[in-house]
Every structure is written in C-alpha cells, then in structure tokens.
Write a structure and sequence with these properties.
It is built from 15 helices and 23 strands.
Length: 539
C-alpha cells in the first residue's frame, strides 16, 4: 500500500481492492490472480486460481507471489475449475506454508482428489528423469575426459552449483504426498448459483461455465454498501452446445470482467464432429490394418485431457460404433486419471446435459464403448507398446502430450508408418502436440483451422532423445472445450450493463489482440490486456 492510499484510507475509511496479475498474462496457462482487499481493520489476501504454467515449467519453481508476500500470508483461495493450469499450483502453495480454505464447486473438488495426486506423481517422474539425464551427461563427459578427450575435465575443481538448475534436477515441484495434503484444505459441498460469504466484505457465487464438469464462472463481491464492486472471472467458458455439458449460464452484470482468450481470434468450424472423426479413424484403421512383421498391427493414439475431452471422446466413439460409422475397434483407456474422472462424471450426472441424463435413465453408460479395456497399472500400459494382434485405439492423457503415459506411447509409435496420432483440440505453444501438428494445421484461413495430416515435423525430442516421426499426424479442433470468439462475444452480449473494465488473459499475443479489438468494436467496452505482474485498483 502506497502513501496516497494510506492517506485516503485514513481520511475516508473507504476500502479498496488491488488486483495482481500473477499468471496467464500473454500465455494460455498458469492462471493465478492475487486480490488484496484493504479496510481500516485489515487486509484480506486471496488468490483466484492457482494453475501450473505448461509453457514454462521452470517458472513454477520461482517465487510467483509479489515481493514480501508468502503463501502463509494468503487467507484463502478460489478455484474456477479442475484443469491443472488453473488448479495444479495448489500443492506447491500448501507445501510452502499456505493453510487457509480453498473454495470450488463440489464436482471440481471430486476431480481434484484425482488430478492433484496424479500431478504430484508426474512432478516426481519429471524430476527423476531430469536427474537421470543429467547423470548420463555427467558420466559421458567423465568418460570422454578419461579417454583423453578433455585432459582438464577430471582435474578441474567442482563448480559451485547454481540453485535453480540443482533444485529442478534434485527435487520435484511437489510430490504425491504434498498433493494429498493440499486436498485437506478444500472446502466441500459448494454448489452452483449459491452465494457464499468468504470473509468480511468478500463473497463468491459460482455459475455454470459449460467447459468441463464442475467448471464455473466466478462472481466475486468486493466491499460493502454503495462501494461494493463485482468482479466476474470466466475461468474457461465452453462452446455453444458443448457435448455432455450444460451450456454456459448468462451473467447479467459485473463492474469488472476478466475473460479467457484462448480462441479469441478463431471461429470453430460448425460441422458434424462425428463425421469428421469417423473419417479420420476409418482412414487410420485402413493404415493400421496392414501389419508389420516386426511391429504388428498399427495403433491409433489419441492424446486427450483426462477430464472433459476424454469423456466426450468415449461417448462419441460409443455412438459411432453403435451407428456403424466406424468398426468396433478395441479401445484402451490408458489413463488412471481418466478412468477415475469418468466415475466422477457418473456421480455428478445431474450436471450433464439432458441427452446424456436420458441415456443414463435408459440404462446406457455413455462412457463405455463396445470393446473397452481400462489399464490402471503400469505393466498393462507398457504392454501396449508391444506388437498388437489387431488395430487398436489408445486414448491417454495429456491432451497436449505434455506428460503422462501417452508420451511413452508416442515415443514408441511415432517411428511406425502404420500408426496414427489424432490430436483433437488446442495444442499450446511449446508442447509436443504443438510441434507434431506442424504449421499447416496451426494456420488460419478466414478464421477456420485447417485440418490435415501433416508431415512437416520429421524429428522431435522426447525425454531429451530424438524420435523420428513417420506416423500420420491428424488434427481437428472440434473437441476443444474452449469457446471461440463468437461464443465469448455471445456470453458478453447478455450483460445488461456495460462493465467498467474488461481484462483479457489466457491467450497468445495474436488471440489477445484480436479479441480486444473485437470487443471494443462490437460492444464498445473498455479492454485491457495485462502484462505479468501488472497491478490494478478495483474501485
């Protein structure tokens, strides 16, 4: 708090709120905002979203809070939805001293029971592989020195380790146990469309976001009486008529709006996704149905987020098989997290759309295909990289091939010409998925993403090792759970009064700039694109 603010508070007693942008500014992931609500009595600090940074995992090892503020200084946390780029930093915060309540919808809490320990496991695995690679490199240099390649290498005094490199190699961001501990701080039982008081002069209400199960648009009340201000954060809002889910709920008004911008410069193709996916799978099946003497039949790999996209894919494959659109191919669900989160979808079926609820009422499990096998243990997963006796589909997480079992399958299957990798949604900058789909699939013509099997990428690195790419790579954006520019504008157009300010986050530079221009032109709202560490006063 600066001197001017202190004087104003002392003179008028008027509370004020500061907003710190700590993540997702100029990038798609790492959602995190700090609010400081100051009255004469005290300053209440809380975080809105606590996401991991997929584009740069080293960023999460740094101090993400403002200078002088520690996790122990945070009073509580509000989480919009369960995706790790919105929730996955929570175990790091509790590990470093945060001990307050964490607020979210009940379905989001159930999903995080699964997702956060899984994230902890992936953090441990990444640290182990980083250390193993560093050890291999060290041994290779030592061997070179011993054989005379570098006569000075052995005799040199060991250099002092830098904290950043050593820490990232030697320890994970957090462990499974850290993640399980963080779950104890989650406030259970919170429902949509219910106002909850969180602290003096601070309240929250969650409304349906139509993005993934439990995802909410977050409506905050800050202050009291005539000085009360409302702040609306979209989290991630879904597409119009999102499969399986109910549509995003309208919000009538807010003084301030913060919106995602992932597809801020794009328009989703309006077409039958089942017909397109069936065409891709049938093409891949023909390719896979010619066995190799060494590698067996081909495999169709589909990287998918364990929550949301995985369930939609299973429901669509079941429907396509029942309609005879594709063969009754054996489907392996190779993601314990996807398997468990599907159970959460069954538990919260009252949150799904009317069509899906009707299937359950008729005794049909929408998430079970004709020949479905769930692989929970690692040995069963590893066996999938052996030669197959028939073409199979393997669905695994993560959706951007940024980690998980699917990366091991990609390493094994990318060199095989009889194999196909099908990406079905947005692939973030810097991810393996983004590298594999190539430039042609990322370009835009008249707002519509080109869908093509591209061979622009011939070699990628997986776990630090080069991997040749001979498998066919297919890409379709139809399974993205993010609304496009028209979905976002359609949601905003339902506001009954103009907000004071709109903040745009969660997008690359082009998407942010395009959405800003579109909102200003069509709605004539005032729009700001924050930079990382920017601070704003909510007044």
């Amino acid at each position: 708090m600066n001197k001017r603010e202190l004087k104003r508070l002392a003179k008028t007693g008027q509370a004020f709120t500061k907003l710190h942008i700590l993540g997702s500014a100029g990038q798609v992931t790492g959602s995190m905002m700090l609010f400081e609500h100051t009255t004469r009595e005290r300053t209440t600090r809380f975080l809105l979203d606590v996401g991991l940074t997929v584009e740069n995992d080293k960023a999460d090892f740094m101090n993400r809070l403002p200078s002088g503020i520690t996790p122990a200084d945070i009073d509580f946390i509000v989480v919009s939805h369960a995706h790790i780029d919105h929730s996955g930093y929570l175990p790091r915060l509790t590990k470093l001293g945060f001990a307050g309540p964490v607020y979210m919808t009940e379905a989001t809490a159930d999903l995080l029971d699964i997702m956060l320990p899984d994230s902890g496991y992936l953090q441990e695995e990444a640290a182990r592989k980083n250390c193993a690679r560093a050890e291999r490199q060290k041994n290779a240099k030592l061997a070179l020195a011993i054989t005379g390649g570098d006569k000075h290498a052995v005799s040199e005094k060991p250099k002092r380790k830098s904290r950043s490199r050593a820490a990232i190699c030697s320890e994970p961001l957090y462990t499974q146990d850290d993640a399980k501990h963080s779950l104890t701080f989650i406030k259970r039982g919170m429902k949509l469309n219910t106002r909850y008081g969180l602290a003096p002069e601070i309240a929250v209400k969650f409304t349906e976001a139509g993005h993934i199960l439990g995802a909410a648009v977050v409506l905050l009340e800050l202050g009291a009486g005539s000085k009360k201000r409302t702040f609306c954060f979209t989290g991630n809002i879904g597409r119009t008529e999102m499969p399986l889910l109910q549509s995003v709920a309208a919000v009538k008004s807010a003084d301030y709006v913060m919106s995602e911008s992932t597809y801020g410069n794009r328009v989703h193709a309006r077409r039958d996704r089942l017909e397109l996916l069936a065409e891709i799978i049938n093409r891949a099946y023909e390719r896979a149905n010619t066995p190799s003497a060494k590698h067996g039949y081909g495999v169709i790999l589909i990287p998918a987020f364990a929550v949301g996209r995985g369930q939609v894919l299973l429901a669509d494959i079941r429907q396509m098989q029942d309609l005879g659109m594709i063969p009754r191919i054996k489907v392996f669900v190779d993601s314990p997290m996807m398997i468990r989160s599907t159970e959460v979808h069954r538990k919260h079926k009252h949150l799904l759309d009317a069509e899906t609820q009707a299937l359950f009422a008729d005794g049909v499990d929408p998430f079970r295909t004709a020949r479905q096998i769930e692989t929970m243990d690692r040995a069963a997963s590893q066996a999938l990289d052996e030669p197959q006796s028939e073409p199979v589909i393997i669905i695994g997480s993560s959706g951007m091939a940024a980690g998980g079992r699917i990366v091991n399958h990609l390493k094994a299957r990318l060199p095989g010409r009889q194999n196909t990798v099908v990406f079905v949604g947005y692939q973030g900058t810097g991810t393996l998925g983004n590298q594999l789909i190539g430039r042609d699939a990322r370009r835009n013509i008249n707002g519509t993403t080109i869908e093509s099997a591209t061979q622009n990428v011939r070699t990628v690195r997986i776990y630090g090792e080069p991997v040749k790419v001979y498998a066919a790579i297919e890409f379709m954006s139809d399974y993205s759970a993010h609304g496009d520019v028209n979905d976002i504008l359609g949601w905003m157009s339902k506001f009954e009064r103009k907000p004071k300010q709109v903040f745009l986050v969660h997008g690359d530079d082009e998407a942010l700039a395009a959405l800003k221009e579109t909102i200003e032109k069509r709605l004539r709202w005032s729009v700001t694109v924050p930079k990382a560490r920017d601070v704003f006063t909510i007044e």
